[in-house]
Design goal:
about 140 residues, alpha+beta, 5-stranded mixed β-sheet, 3-stranded antiparallel β-sheet
Protein backbone atom coordinates (compact mmCIF):
# COMPACT_ATOMS: atom_id res chain seq x y z
CA UNK A 1 0.00 0.00 0.00
CA UNK A 2 2.77 2.44 0.91
CA UNK A 3 4.62 1.68 -2.35
CA UNK A 4 1.52 2.53 -4.39
CA UNK A 5 1.27 6.00 -2.80
CA UNK A 6 4.99 6.71 -3.07
CA UNK A 7 5.20 5.91 -6.77
CA UNK A 8 3.06 8.87 -7.97
CA UNK A 9 4.94 11.19 -5.59
CA UNK A 10 8.29 9.99 -6.94
CA UNK A 11 7.15 10.49 -10.52
CA UNK A 12 5.97 14.00 -9.69
CA UNK A 13 9.36 14.87 -8.21
CA UNK A 14 11.07 13.62 -11.35
CA UNK A 15 8.91 15.85 -13.53
CA UNK A 16 8.94 18.93 -11.28
CA UNK A 17 12.59 20.02 -11.71
CA UNK A 18 12.17 20.23 -15.48
CA UNK A 19 9.11 22.39 -15.02
CA UNK A 20 10.81 24.77 -12.59
CA UNK A 21 13.94 25.23 -14.70
CA UNK A 22 12.17 25.63 -18.01
CA UNK A 23 13.32 28.77 -19.82
CA UNK A 24 10.75 31.57 -19.47
CA UNK A 25 10.04 34.20 -22.09
CA UNK A 26 11.53 37.64 -21.37
CA UNK A 27 9.48 40.84 -21.45
CA UNK A 28 11.32 44.10 -22.28
CA UNK A 29 10.39 47.22 -20.31
CA UNK A 30 11.78 50.70 -19.78
CA UNK A 31 12.11 52.31 -16.37
CA UNK A 32 12.10 56.11 -16.32
CA UNK A 33 13.19 57.93 -13.16
CA UNK A 34 11.64 61.43 -13.03
CA UNK A 35 12.66 63.92 -10.36
CA UNK A 36 11.63 67.41 -11.42
CA UNK A 37 11.25 68.45 -7.75
CA UNK A 38 15.04 68.47 -7.41
CA UNK A 39 15.64 69.65 -10.98
CA UNK A 40 17.13 66.36 -12.13
CA UNK A 41 16.45 65.43 -15.77
CA UNK A 42 14.64 62.12 -16.41
CA UNK A 43 16.82 59.04 -16.85
CA UNK A 44 15.67 56.00 -18.84
CA UNK A 45 16.84 52.44 -18.20
CA UNK A 46 16.04 49.29 -20.17
CA UNK A 47 15.56 45.90 -18.55
CA UNK A 48 13.67 42.65 -18.89
CA UNK A 49 11.62 40.48 -16.61
CA UNK A 50 10.10 37.06 -17.03
CA UNK A 51 6.71 36.95 -18.68
CA UNK A 52 3.97 37.51 -16.06
CA UNK A 53 6.70 38.49 -13.53
CA UNK A 54 6.13 41.29 -11.02
CA UNK A 55 7.69 44.74 -11.33
CA UNK A 56 9.70 44.24 -8.13
CA UNK A 57 11.61 41.42 -9.82
CA UNK A 58 12.33 43.60 -12.85
CA UNK A 59 13.60 46.44 -10.64
CA UNK A 60 15.87 44.02 -8.77
CA UNK A 61 17.20 42.68 -12.07
CA UNK A 62 17.84 46.23 -13.29
CA UNK A 63 19.69 47.13 -10.08
CA UNK A 64 21.85 44.01 -10.34
CA UNK A 65 22.81 44.79 -13.94
CA UNK A 66 23.19 48.59 -13.88
CA UNK A 67 25.24 50.46 -11.26
CA UNK A 68 23.42 53.72 -12.11
CA UNK A 69 20.07 52.42 -10.84
CA UNK A 70 19.45 51.82 -7.16
CA UNK A 71 16.24 51.54 -5.17
CA UNK A 72 15.04 50.53 -1.74
CA UNK A 73 11.65 49.38 -0.60
CA UNK A 74 9.90 48.59 2.64
CA UNK A 75 7.82 45.50 3.22
CA UNK A 76 4.55 46.47 4.91
CA UNK A 77 2.89 43.46 6.61
CA UNK A 78 -0.56 44.56 5.43
CA UNK A 79 0.05 46.15 2.03
CA UNK A 80 3.24 44.50 0.76
CA UNK A 81 6.33 46.22 -0.63
CA UNK A 82 6.34 49.91 -1.37
CA UNK A 83 9.00 52.04 -3.00
CA UNK A 84 11.06 53.98 -0.48
CA UNK A 85 13.97 55.50 -2.45
CA UNK A 86 15.34 55.66 -5.97
CA UNK A 87 18.97 56.52 -6.73
CA UNK A 88 19.55 57.74 -3.20
CA UNK A 89 16.50 60.03 -3.02
CA UNK A 90 13.85 59.03 -0.47
CA UNK A 91 10.41 60.42 0.03
CA UNK A 92 9.55 61.72 3.48
CA UNK A 93 6.57 62.91 5.49
CA UNK A 94 8.09 66.27 6.46
CA UNK A 95 8.47 67.37 2.83
CA UNK A 96 5.35 65.43 1.81
CA UNK A 97 7.24 63.61 -0.94
CA UNK A 98 7.04 60.06 -2.25
CA UNK A 99 7.82 57.94 -5.30
CA UNK A 100 4.73 57.64 -7.50
CA UNK A 101 4.34 54.63 -9.79
CA UNK A 102 2.99 55.44 -13.25
CA UNK A 103 2.87 53.32 -16.40
CA UNK A 104 2.90 54.48 -19.99
CA UNK A 105 1.29 51.77 -22.09
CA UNK A 106 2.52 50.94 -25.63
CA UNK A 107 -0.40 52.97 -27.06
CA UNK A 108 0.81 56.12 -25.22
CA UNK A 109 -1.70 56.25 -22.35
CA UNK A 110 -0.33 56.98 -18.87
CA UNK A 111 -2.05 55.13 -16.05
CA UNK A 112 -1.66 54.92 -12.28
CA UNK A 113 -1.83 51.22 -11.36
CA UNK A 114 -4.07 50.31 -8.45
CA UNK A 115 -1.31 48.04 -7.09
CA UNK A 116 2.31 48.63 -6.14
CA UNK A 117 5.70 47.28 -7.21
CA UNK A 118 5.08 43.92 -5.52
CA UNK A 119 1.89 43.14 -7.45
CA UNK A 120 2.10 45.05 -10.72
CA UNK A 121 2.75 42.76 -13.72
CA UNK A 122 4.22 44.79 -16.60
CA UNK A 123 3.38 43.99 -20.20
CA UNK A 124 5.96 44.01 -22.98
CA UNK A 125 7.21 47.45 -24.03
CA UNK A 126 5.59 49.35 -21.18
CA UNK A 127 7.37 52.36 -19.78
CA UNK A 128 7.46 52.23 -15.98
CA UNK A 129 7.69 55.76 -14.59
CA UNK A 130 9.04 56.27 -11.08
CA UNK A 131 8.15 59.91 -10.39
CA UNK A 132 9.31 61.80 -7.31
CA UNK A 133 6.21 63.78 -6.33
CA UNK A 134 4.46 65.70 -3.57
CA UNK A 135 1.13 64.78 -2.02
Amino acid sequence: MMVSTLLPAALLLLLLPGTLTKESKSVPIEVVVENSLLGIPPVTFSTQLVERGILLGGLKRLMASNANFRFTYTEDPNYGPYLESVNGVAGNDKNRTYWELLVETPDGKTIRPDVGIGCYIPSANEKIILKFARW
